[in-house]
């Protein structure tokens, strides 16, 4: 009888132990709900994604807190699909933006740029386009016109017209290298043995009261950086040809016609450098025409 009672107690104790262990394993909330609690029995074997060693995304994280196990139900709840989708690109029927405003001299600038060439495609129709804008900006950058905005304004039109109507053949260059200046159009270029070696570019000569005289001269003195005593200013790439007048890089905005020079032939930086490279003492200088207003 005594043995029967002991046997019955042992059986009952085993049943309670098995039921308790089963409850921890099946209930996803049991045992692992607390931040620092021990992991439930057999949790390391469950497909929870947690492991006993740190993975690449766990480096440096505290290891005192056990990871919360995920649900292990055989039939996981369906996850809602995202409703946000990337909109498909739409094709606009509007004309592409030109990128710069249209100026009052649109057709004229288009005409002269098409004649000059070298600045990109332009359509001579009097209407601004992206291609026209790019060509006008390139032209403005080349000839130091400010601001560079692609607008066909008065200065851009004036410069384009002067360059497009300059005839290099009007300069009686002769043999060797010759610097030619069209005082009427305010342009300058270089010729060697009858061939243009520097295309016409812009200049600014003497203003009223300081007229640059037409005629044929020679470069008789050169200095890469000359100091002007009367005007107290440096004259870069100085090439003198007559009466204290010479070629040099401009010290002010070249397209400000109201001031002009005191007889010198002002040049943009790139053009002053190029003429310095081409010239030497003895280089022939031919000036034709007369600047308007002088």
Question: Which helices and strands appear, and what pairs or packs with what?
Answer:
Layout: H1 2-26, H2 106-116, H3 130-142, H4 154-164, E1 177-182, E2 187-192, E3 195-202, E4 215-218, E5 221-228, E6 233-242, E7 245-249, E8 265-267, H5 269-278, E9 284-288
Parallel strand pairs: 1-9, 7-8
Antiparallel strand pairs: 1-2, 2-3, 4-9, 5-6, 6-7
Helix pairs in contact: 2-4
Would you mind describing this structure in some detail?
Helix content is about 25%, strand content about 20%. The N terminus is likely disordered. The N and C termini lie far apart (about 140 Å). The protein has about 290 residues and is an alpha+beta fold. The chain is globular, with a radius of gyration of 43 Å. It has a five-stranded mixed β-sheet with strand order 3-2-1-9-4, sandwiched between helices. Strands 5-6-7-8 form a four-stranded mixed β-sheet. Among the domains are: about 60 residues; about 120 residues, L,D-transpeptidase catalytic domain-like (Beta Barrel). Keywords: Cell shape, Cell wall biogenesis/degradation, Peptidoglycan synthesis, Signal, Transferase. Pathway: Cell wall biogenesis; peptidoglycan biosynthesis. One of its GO terms (cellular component) is extracellular region. This is L,D-TPase catalytic domain-containing protein.
Protein traits:
294 residues; alpha+beta; L,D-transpeptidase catalytic domain-like; 5-stranded mixed sheet; 5 helices; disordered N terminus; LD_TPept_cat_dom; L,D-TPase catalytic domain-containing protein; peptidoglycan synthesis; cell shape
Computed CA radius of gyration, to the nearest angstrom? 43 Å
Taking all residues together, what is the mean pLDDT? 77
Number of helices: 5
Described by strand count, sense and barrel closure, the largest sheet is: 5 strands, mixed
CATH evolutionary superfamily of the domain at 168-288: L,D-transpeptidase catalytic domain-like
CATH fold node name of the domain at 168-288: L,D-transpeptidase catalytic domain-like
N- and C-termini, Cα separation: 142 Å
Give the name of the CATH architecture of the domain at 168-288.
Beta Barrel
Series of secondary-structure elements, N-terminal to C-terminal: HHHHEEEEEEEEHE
Q: Spans with pLDDT under 50 lasting ≥5 residues?
A: 1-78, 80-98
Oligomer: single chain
Strand order of the largest sheet: 3-2-1-9-4
